[in-house]
Design goal:
Elements lengths: L1 E4 L7 E2 H7 L8 E3 L7 H5 L6 H13 L5 H11 L6 E3 L4 E5 L9 H15 L7 E6 L3 H10 L5 E8 L5 H8 L5 E7 L2 H13 L1 H6 L1 E4 L5 H4 L4 H9 L8 E5 L4 H11 L6 E6 L4 H8 L23 H7 L4 H7 E5 L2 H15 L5 H15 L6 E5 L7 H8 L7 H4 L9 E4 L2 H9 L1
Parallel strand pairs: 5-13, 6-7, 6-9, 7-8, 8-14, 10-11, 10-13, 11-12
Antiparallel strand pairs: 1-2, 1-3, 4-5
Helix pairs in contact: 3-4, 3-11, 4-5, 5-6, 6-7, 12-14, 16-17
Bound molecules: pyridoxal-5'-phosphate (PLP).
Length: 431
């Protein structure tokens, strides 16, 4: 499979090269030259396949022969080695829980797959690879965990001091080994700016093999299709395919679902659930696309004013507005509605949503008001414990701590404090 840049200037690349590069030199996102179609037989008999087999079938055409089959099977198995349960909330709405991975958010899937692919590709390099990543919270933990112990790869994570939740901070700072955390005295934008400067710095790039683990990387984007198929496998009424409702920020997750749909995943409709950052909601209502500055909300992983993956959604639909609207709707949900939804669903249905899942739940409920013959699921993208500071005052109870993170809470944070200054980052990287 070859990948072309959506800006159409840079040359086409292989999966390996696209994974190592991340973004095309012309600043475009990479997109697969063709979209594989899964056999009817496979979809009709999906119940009989294991998670590993489903994931392998879905990703293999995208990777081709660039990773040997046995190695790709191992990578895929390690990527999906936790549960993806579809849990019923009420008669019409279920929750696809994507938070059973090591850092309790769906980003684990993309990060685990990408880190292992990159590890494979750089195995025989004489130079160590340095993955540089700025995080506002969830990405850092998933990337750190995904790359932990991967040989030949060092990871340096920049995060804004005091601006990530305490669980998120521990997930970034307690691993050690090949993972280092830089605690920057500044904002997420400062961190991102420092990373961008590092990639543009000739001297640094001569000395080090720098790469990013950004969410636009094809090796993070494509494996997100896996759990849409796991969801369909668990969907009881195969004669009435589900509505998929996806809490969206950068639109990578929902775009993976739309791609899976193009490959044959049965679905009646997709919904992009947004918070007050409503660029796409507005676009789908009046055809006018106007990126804005992000505003802060309770569902902070979706605070994106210019969603980077939306160009991929446009490409999937050949920029045809009407065909996009037939498949995709969007709702924008306020913080007040988010809080009410968390309280309501918890007291009436005994299901605890995190703020992102709550945005999804209400968006799906709004859609179903006018499509009462349909049923659907939300993708619950994070565990509520990651946002206990939001959730606990609403339900007036403590959120039980999952066993998988109990040990981390006792560990000691290890970070290097740094001013929001590129020269400081540069000398740190050069030492
Ligand atoms: C990253 C994230 C999102 C947004 O996903 P996109 O692929 O950027 O649309 C939603 N919820 C949570 C919890 C996240 O961490």
């Amino acid at each position: 499979m070859q990948y072309y840049s959506l800006n159409h200037i840079s040359p086409k690349l292989s999966f390996k090269e696209a994974t190592i590069k991340g973004q095309a030199p012309d600043k475009g996102l990479y997109f697969p030259e063709s979209i594989p179609v899964l056999s009817k037989d496979f979809l009709a008999n999906i119940k009989e396949f294991s998670k590993e087999e489903i994931a392998f079938k879905v990703i293999q055409p995208y990777v081709g022969d660039e990773i040997p089959e046995t190695e790709l099977r191992r990578i895929v198995a390690e990527t999906v080695n936790f549960d993806f349960p579809l849990v019923k909330i009420n008669d019409q709405i279920s929750s696809l829980e994507l938070f059973h991975g090591p850092t309790l958010a769906f980003k684990d899937v993309g990060a685990r797959f990408m880190s292992r692919c990159l590890g494979h590709f750089v195995k025989n390099n004489d130079k160590q690879v340095t993955v540089l990543v700025a995080t506002s919270g969830d990405t850092g933990g998933a990337v750190a965990n995904g790359f932990y112990g991967v040989e030949g790869v060092n990871v340096v994570i920049l995060y804004p001091s005091g601006k990530v939740s305490s669980v998120q901070e521990l997930q970034l700072t307690t691993l050690g080994k090949n993972i280092s955390a830089l605690e920057v005295d500044g904002t997420f934008d400062d961190c991102q700016q420092m990373v961008k400067q590092a990639f543009a710095d000739m001297e640094l790039n001569k000395e080090l093999f720098l790469t990013s683990a950004n969410s636009i990387n094809v090796a993070r984007w494509l494996p997100q299709q896996f759990y849409y198929f796991f969801a369909y496998q668990q969907w009881a009424d195969k004669n009435h395919p589900p509505v998929f409702c996806v809490p969206s920020g950068n639109f990578g997750n929902i775009c993976a679902g739309l791609l899976a749909h193009r490959s044959g995943l049965p679905a009646v409709h997709f919904i992009a659930a947004c918070n007050a950052n409503n660029v796409v909601t507005n676009y789908l209502s009046d055809g006018h696309y106007e990126p804005k500055k992000a505003v802060a909300t309770l569902s902070n992983a979706m605070d994106v004013g210019s969603p980077s993956n939306f160009v991929r959604v446009l490409e999937l639909f050949n920029k045809e507005f009407i065909s996009m609207k037939n498949v995709l709707s969007s709702y924008s949900i306020t913080d007040a509605e988010t809080k009410n939804t968390i309280a309501d669903v918890y007291t009436k249905m005994n299901y605890l949503l995190d703020p992102h899942g709550a945005v999804g739940y209400l968006a799906l409920e709004k859609y179903l008001e006018t499509h009462s013959d349909q049923k659907g699921m939300i993708l619950e993208t994070a565990h509520p414990i990651k946002f206990y500071d939001v959730v606990e005052p609403i339900i007036k109870e403590k959120v039980p701590i999952p066993d998988s993170i109990k040990s981390i809470l006792e560990e000691k944070k290890q970070s290097v404090k740094m001013d929001a200054n590129f020269e400081d980052l540069k000398s740190y990287l050069k030492q």
